[in-house]
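Hi Y.,

Following your request, here is the sequence exactly as I used it, all 389 residues.
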Amino acid sequence: MKVCFVNTYFPPYRGGAETYVYNLSRCLSNLGHSVEVFCADHLQSSVSTERSASFPNKVEVHRLRPIFTLYGTPIIPSLYWHLMAFDGDIIHVNFPNPFNTFIGGLVSMRKKVPSVITWHNDLPHVSSCARTLVFIHNIFASYYLRWYDKIIATTKRYADLSLMLQRWQPLVQVIHNGVDCGVFNPQVNDEYVRAIHGLEGYKIILFTGALTKWHGYKGLDVLIRAFKIVKKKMKDVRLLIVGDGVLRWYYQEFCKKLSLIDDTVFALDVPDAILPQYYAACDVFVLPSKDQSEGFGLVILEANACGKPVIASMVGGVPEVVIDGYNGMLVQPNSPKDLANALTILLSDQELMLEMGKRGREWAELHDWNIIARAVQEIYEELLCGLTR
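Below is the corresponding structure, written out as tokens. Let me know if you'd prefer a different format.
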């Protein structure tokens, strides 16, 4: 079959939805399907089409230039005409991106092409203006979501929590996110990362994520406060932060204010090729998300696949991904004290870290992208057979 993915961006731009589309495209291509991706050109340099040599059967990527950006969403009027010209079997859109979701649904309805939307998470409330836009969007979404044949939620917990998804339960099917267990694995060597950042002999706490206001809900400030508490009890520990963005200076100044700058490494963005080495270098991975904006947390599976335990907040869909006491620990959100306590417990017990990391690897193997792609393929086949239409 011929599948059309619509997403905000596409690698090398890094993000959860981008990772999702990249890997589904790769795996569906391996299964023999033809895939085209329509997205914004994150560099806004030109309108370009490319075929990625990293995919065995070639995935065609159309990077379209937006005319402006609203609430972090690139607005691309030409997307409508590109999708109308697409001669394929399935349109698969990814939310949160209200513009793409509206256009994808409209084209699906007009061309009578089956459509799927993956609901990664609700729109985050990052400002008072954003709250107004979210309110307006939720009104319009009640109309355009009816154009979709199936809604994929990445966890049942998030599907139950989301006020939007609660209204569309008959269309919702839960399929977890995945991880490339070949790329992320316990055999990855950590010597390079520890050497270039001077981390030999230290226990490492790792955080990865974009350092932007749109990702403020990831809770890096909470982790920094917790790290301050941990440092009072443990001297041989370092905080390693992977990611970059306009708020990096804020977090660096925050670390200076708490006298943590010498114990914190800002590694900035790192190439995908060496990202597994950063997971390999850590002793524990932390996802301290603040609110329900965290629909899944792909980084949890990446850390687990590398055999590392995870500490994460009990928000959004996370408690369905981190099983407390099994592949990691769950803590209350926005509580540096609770997070510091969990970190101290894990970092002080090597045997517990290894055991949770081992179970984490087993959990990750159940979520290999090849497994996830086949589950998504089944939805496509059902729609094409008219079973749910």
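Residues 191-365 form a domain with the Rossmann fold fold (CATH 3.40.50.2000).

Thanks again,
Q.
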